[in-house]
Design brief:
By secondary structure, the chain is an alpha/beta fold. 39% of the residues lie in helices and 13% in strands. It has two domains: 145 residues, Aspartate Aminotransferase, domain 1 (Alpha-Beta Complex); 221 residues, Type I PLP-dependent aspartate aminotransferase-like (Major domain) (Aspartate Aminotransferase, domain 2), CATH 3.40.640. Helix 6 links the parallel strand 3 and strand 4. It starts with 16 loop residues before the first helix and ends with a helix. The N terminus is likely disordered.
Length: 399
């Protein structure tokens, strides 16, 4: 089809309502704009996508090579090879203190994003509601809507820290689940462990599920601690869907391996869903993920230590440049504020981010994408040289 045609897939005749109203991922859209500008020869520095700039560890890559040499290149069970399910169960017991039956309570998916989507499809009927604390990663809300549900945004206080009290007044007869994401994308905030327990108990008392996205659980700084939602409360594992991925922790974003652990009936439904959609994740990537989870973990500590150093340097630089920016306790995102409008309302983050891209050639994601006007998300999963240059450009950019 010609690039000059007026056809657009979102206006195609007969297109489903759910796709016609769905916006593309704002993070990926921002990255695409940056790359388009770079193709024009502009010196774009990209701080959009949350992707570690480290190489996948050698022992993990070697496990993939070994799988190829050993002929482990055919279909696997749709919900993952038994060896990887067992490795996930060992990880959850070793690091998070909860035992899961790998044969019935763990499912392997094509990345964490698919794991989350599978959970939503398994849980939601049309009109069911999911509580989504904001600011939040936009995909949470969009996946709820794609599964036929209704996202209910729960505003957080100025510190962007979810507390059980924030959920009061938002639960209805249609509420099916609440999203917990700590450390947070986009803010880097880490929930108080006691509040994770309190939110889980609140959910259990109201008969709703906790969908816990633990993607950034290893990226913790300044003594912050990650609380696994299914731990610390008797019976919690029956109400928690724990989603995670090897993508960030082991710099394996392109390998597309995520997983979900939870109640047997829901995991069985997710496994069945996999048989009718994607079938199994890559067999080779699964064997690599076994090595990532069971193998040496020094690579994780090295990466987190480097992110910690970048975090301190970058946030200090943002503050010196005039931005109000809290020090993130987790993940690898800085979340600076921009100047308010003349009337005192939050600044227009979309306009600001586009100016920053077009004038300073620095790419980031507008806070509006996370349902929080007046902020920017800047990933410091970039080299120190890149971060230094970003700060130099910001110093001459008119706020």
């Amino acid at each position: 089809m010609s690039e000059t045609t007026s056809f657009h897939p979102r206006t195609a005749p007969g297109l489903s309502e759910r796709l016609r109203t769905m916006a593309p991922s704002p993070t990926i859209a921002a990255s695409a704009r940056a790359r388009a500008l770079a193709r024009e020869g502009k010196p774009v520095l990209e701080l959009t996508v949350g992707e570690p700039d480290f190489e996948t560890p050698d022992h993990v890559r070697e496990a993939a090579h070994r799988a190829i040499r050993d002929g482990k290149t055919r279909y696997t069970p749709s919900g993952g090879i038994p060896e990887l399910k067992a490795a996930v169960a060992r990880k959850l017991h070793r690091e998070n203190g909860v035992e899961y039956d790998p044969t019935t309570e763990v499912c392997i998916c094509n990345g964490g994003k698919q794991a989350l989507f599978n959970v939503m499809v398994a849980l939601l009927n049309p009109g069911d509601e999911v509580l989504v604390p904001v600011p939040t990663w936009a995909t949470f809300s969009d996946q709820v809507a794609l599964a036929g549900g209704t996202p209910v945004h729960v505003p957080l206080g100025p510190d962007h820290r979810l507390r059980a009290a924030d959920l009061e007044g938002h639960v209805t007869a249609r509420t099916k689940a609440v999203i917990v994401n700590s450390p947070s994308n986009p803010t880097g905030v880490v929930m108080d462990p006691a509040e994770v327990v309190a939110v889980t108990r609140f959910a259990m008392a109201h008969g709703i599920y906790v969908v816990a996205d633990d993607t950034y659980e290893h990226f913790l700084y300044d003594g912050a601690a990650h609380q696994f939602a299914a731990a610390g409360t008797e019976g919690a594992r029956d109400w928690v869907l724990a989603v995670n991925t090897v993508s960030k922790t082991y710099a394996m974003t392109g390998w597309r391996i995520g997983y979900v652990a939870g109640p047997k009936a829901i995991i069985k439904a997710i496994d069945a869903l996999m048989t009718q959609t994607t079938s199994n994740p890559s067999s080779i990537a699964q064997w690599a993920a076994v090595e990532a989870l069971d193998g040496p973990q020094d690579c994780v500590r090295t990466m987190v230590a480097e992110f910690d150093a970048r975090r301190r340097m970058f946030v200090a630089g943002l503050r010196a440049t005039g931005y109000a920016c809290p020090m993130p306790e987790g993940a690898f995102y800085a979340y600076p504020r921009i100047a308010n409008r003349p009337d005192g309302s939050p600044g227009d983050s979309d306009t600001y981010a586009m100016r920053l891209l077009n004038e300073a050639h620095v790419s980031c994601v507008a806070g509006k994408a996370f349902f929080d006007e007046g902020s920017l998300r800047m990933s410091y999963a970039a080299s120190r040289a890149v971060l230094d240059e970003v700060l130099a450009r910001l110093a001459t950019f008119g706020h």
